[in-house]
Design goal:
InterPro entries: Cro/C1-type_HTH, Lambda_DNA-bd_dom_sf, TPR-like_helical_dom_sf, TPR_rpt, TransReg_Diox_bact_type. Keywords: DNA-binding. It is built from 23 helices and no strands. The N and C termini lie far apart (91 Å). The longest helix is centred in the first third of the chain and has 19 residues. Among the domains are: 62 residues, lambda repressor-like DNA-binding domains (434 Repressor (Amino-terminal Domain)), CATH 1.10.260.40; 120 residues, Serine Threonine Protein Phosphatase 5, Tetratricopeptide repeat (Alpha Horseshoe), CATH 1.25.40.10; 96 residues, Tetratricopeptide repeat domain (Serine Threonine Protein Phosphatase 5, Tetratricopeptide repeat, Alpha Horseshoe). It is an all-alpha fold.
Length: 446
């Protein structure tokens, strides 16, 4: 591992100043202040005994003063990064972030590869903690870094994470742009279809679906389904079927969505990816809640199985979605108090996320408040939903939220507010009201 060779004197001076010491603090009966000054300016080479004394005073090893390297310290830093990786796998995202940050504080001791590993870990920890702005900033720096090789596994990991973060932050345009550009890059390299290709495409499907571009989402899904079974791992193939199921559900093809989700579950069940297994169960439970005769027992089993795993290893956005799904189920089985608790917890997890998702969760909370016999609270929450929708990107999803808002206003007996919300739902679907005719239209035939 290469380290800067700036000389004993310069390293001594840098460490002394970093620790807030002056030259007098390094002096002793055997080492004068003037001798310290001569060492720092490179005019004297200290003996081993003097080096040991100086190293002790500035808190480093003799090896570091001599060479700029400290193998024991480097080993400790590498262990911190390894601990961060393990903590991330176990869902201890705060501990992981701390470990990566502590290692990066001593970045000059680390190789470039270890620094990149810690920075990627730090970015993913930010994402899991719901700190999406920090995650996006760091991921963007890494993705654009000249050292990031297009087509490499690391490059694909960064592209996928960036798409995901922008999507969860509600910036669907950028999430799609990054995904499309990355797919074009992979196609242009002429590489055989790999897991990275399949997983990137799967993420892009989800971004299209979130933006409401269902036609494009289905085109990509159909393309990947045709090749994923031959080229992808079980995780990659499962991800394709998973996102294809979401597209089918958005297009009202419920039976197809259920079949695709069941296929994805079978593939994921044969892997050790507990997070993906849990999230798929939440998808399946939500699809079942949308059927004509929902099986409450089966839905509850799926949610109960998935909930602990998502809390342990899911991102903040995934945890919020799970809590919202539990709120929806509580409303299905007439338990509004339970729904209020789950919806409130979900809102606490999406403070910095997609405003449309926050609005959707608030609408569930308003419904629960109304069913719990508190119409005033429900109206207050609905007004907060309307304010939040005003900051959200217009998609089919915001149209669905407006429709839910309208139905609740109608149930509250507020016809004017209900009609306005129904109009907003139609507008978000691209169906604005007809212009008012201010004068009679006449025509004559010659």
């Amino acid at each position: 591992m290469e380290q800067p060779q700036n000389g004993i004197g310069q390293r001594l001076r840098e460490l002394r100043q970093k620790r807030g010491l002056n030259q007098q603090d390094l002096a002793s009966a055997d080492i004068s202040v003037s001798y310290v000054s001569l060492i720092e300016t490179g005019k004297r080479v200290p003996s081993e005994a003097v080096l040991r004394a100086l190293a002790e005073r500035v808190g480093c090893s003799v090896e570091y003063l001599q060479t700029g390297r400290d193998d024991a310290h480097v080993k400790d830093l590498e262990l911190k990064i390894a601990f961060g990786d393990m903590a991330m796998r176990n869902g201890a995202n705060g501990e992981a972030l701390q470990s990566y940050s502590e290692a990066l504080a001593s970045a000059p001791f680390l190789s470039e590869g270890m620094i990149r590993r810690a920075r990627i870990g730090q970015a993913l920890a930010f994402e899991k903690l719901g700190r999406l702005e920090a995650a996006i900033q760091l991921l963007t720096q890494l993705y654009r870094d000249p050292g990031t090789v297009p087509g490499s596994a690391e490059w694909a990991q960064l592209a996928i994470a960036l798409c995901r973060c922008y999507r969860d932050a509600g910036d669907y345009t950028l999430s799609v742009e990054i995904g499309e550009q990355a797919m074009r890059t992979l196609d242009g390299l002429g590489l055989d279809l790999t897991d990275d290709h399949v997983q990137l495409g799967s993420t892009l499907i989800g971004c299209y679906q979130a933006r409401g571009d269902l036609t494009q989402a289905r085109l990509v899904a159909d393309r990947l389904i045709n090749v994923a079974d031959e080229a992808g791992s079980r995780v990659a193939r499962g991800a394709v079927y998973w996102n294809a199921a979401l597209v089918a559900s958005s297009q009202g093809r419920t039976a197809e969505a259920l079949a695709l989700t069941e296929r994805a579950l079978l593939l994921m069940a044969e892997t050790d990816n507990l997070r993906h297994q849990a999230l798929l169960k939440i998808v399946y439970a939500n699809l079942l809640m949308g059927t004509e005769a929902p099986d409450a027992v089966r839905i509850k089993t799926l949610l109960d199985d998935a909930h602990p795993a998502v809390l342990e290893v899911g991102t903040a956005a995934e945890q919020a979605w799970t809590e919202a799904s539990l709120a929806r189920f509580a409303l299905l089985v007439d338990e509004p108090a339970e729904a209020i608790g789950h919806a409130s917890r979900a809102l606490g997890l999406v403070r910095n996320g997609d405003p449309a998702e926050s609005a959707r969760i608030r609408t569930l909370l308003a419904q629960a408040q109304l069913e719990a016999g508190d119409p005033e609270a429900a109206m207050t929450t609905l007004r907060a939903v309307i304010r939040q929708l005003g900051t959200a990107t217009v998609t089919r999803h915001t149209a669905a939220v407006w429709r839910h808002v309208a139905d609740l206003w109608k149930e509250l007996g507020r016809e004017t507010e209900a009609m306005e919300a129904y109009g907003r739902a139609l507008a978000d679907l691209g169906l604005p009201a007809l212009p008012t005719v201010k004068a009679p239209i006449t025509s004559s035939l010659g």
